[in-house]
Amino acid sequence: MSTVAFIGLGAMGSRMATNLHAAGHQLRVWNRDAAKAKPFADKGITVCTSAAQAVTGAEFVLSIVADDVATRAVMLGEGGVIAACAPGTIVVDSSTNTPAMAREVAKAAAARGVTYLDAPVSGSLAQAQGKELLFLVGGDKAAYDKALPLLSAMGKMAKRIGDSGAGATLKLINNMLGASLTAAIAEAAQAIEAANLDREACMEILNDGAAGSRLTKTKLPKIFKRDFAPQFQLELMEKDLRYFLALAQELDRPAPIASLVRSQYQAARRASHGKLDSCAVFLQASGEKT
To answer: What are residue 93's DSSP bridge partners?
Structure first.
């Protein structure tokens, strides 16, 4: 088993780190909010006071933080991961970043003899808990092969998509599709309610029809129950849409649907729904209050 520094113990990271520990890997953890590390200390896992301390002596570093800003601070900031890693260390970054950010960190890592893989995940809390995440990986194939046992301890599938930035690119495409479908589901829920249709019957038909998906199975019940407890926060989805639109511009590709969907999520975030589940975009369209 490997010695792994785990950076970022939020809702997703804490579950992923727990699964690595259960698989027998030796963990050294750090989180900017020290309170989130206490459950790990209670299990006898080494809790470090800085990212630099956590990566000292680690064969692998796994990080999952909120965005480009957090990644830049954790990876490239003073006392950050890249500066503290020994040559030969493999850094696996499961944060949802822009491809440009991934390539920048990969370049800085390579200059120090460190290998950086952008490896964002598809899946939310239930998948993180159940070791059912999908890892979308960009970067060196040999490093990817070495990291596979770690990824297998946290997920059901890992695929190398291409060179540095490829994993980040596909993750933004994936989340754009998820956000767009969730917004469409919210519109469908409004029509179902306005027409006074049998909600259970509608969910059964829609889930088994051509548009059926994991999202229709999870988001429609949450909307009908007005259960907006976050599986994936709306403000993070809005951030990912913003990152996708920047990618589309970089690639010189039109994105009219994503632009419209982003405006809906942006309005919902500005209406103070950002900490709720992404399906709370329903509230913005319906005008309801939480």
So the answer is: 63, 118
Output b/e per residue, 262-272; b: 16+ Cβ within 10 A. Answer: bebbbebbeee
Q: Find the farthest-apart pair of alpha carbons in the chain and give their distance in angstroms, rounded.
A: 63
171 is catalytic: yes
Tokens of 194: 């306005």
Query: Residues near 200 by Cβ (< 8 Å), separated by ≥ 6?
Result: none
**In the structure encoding, which two tokens stand for residue 149, read together?**
């046992």
Closest CA to 89 of 97, 78, 81: 81
H helix runs in the chain, sequence order = 11-22, 38-42, 51-55, 68-71, 81-84, 99-111, 125-129, 141-154, 166-194, 199-208, 214-225, 234-250, 256-268, 281-286
Report d(CA 60, CA 115) in Å as an integer.
Answer: 10
* CA distances for 252 relative to 180, 227, 245, 247, 249, angstroms: 20, 39, 10, 8, 5
Domains of the chain: 3-162 (3.40.50.720), 169-286 (1.10.1040.10)
pLDDT by residue (tens digit) across 71-113? 999 999 988 999 999 999 999 999 999 999 999 999 999 999 9
Q: What is the 8-class DSSP label of residue 92?
A: E
Q: pLDDT digit string (tens) for 37-71?
A: 999 999 999 999 999 999 999 999 999 999 999 99
Active-site residue, from 107, 141, 171, 217: 171
> Parallel, antiparallel, or unpaired for β 133-138 and 121-122?
antiparallel
* 230-to-207, 227, 248 alpha-carbon distances in Å: 21, 9, 28
CA distances from 128 to 67, 185, 263 (A): 18, 24, 29
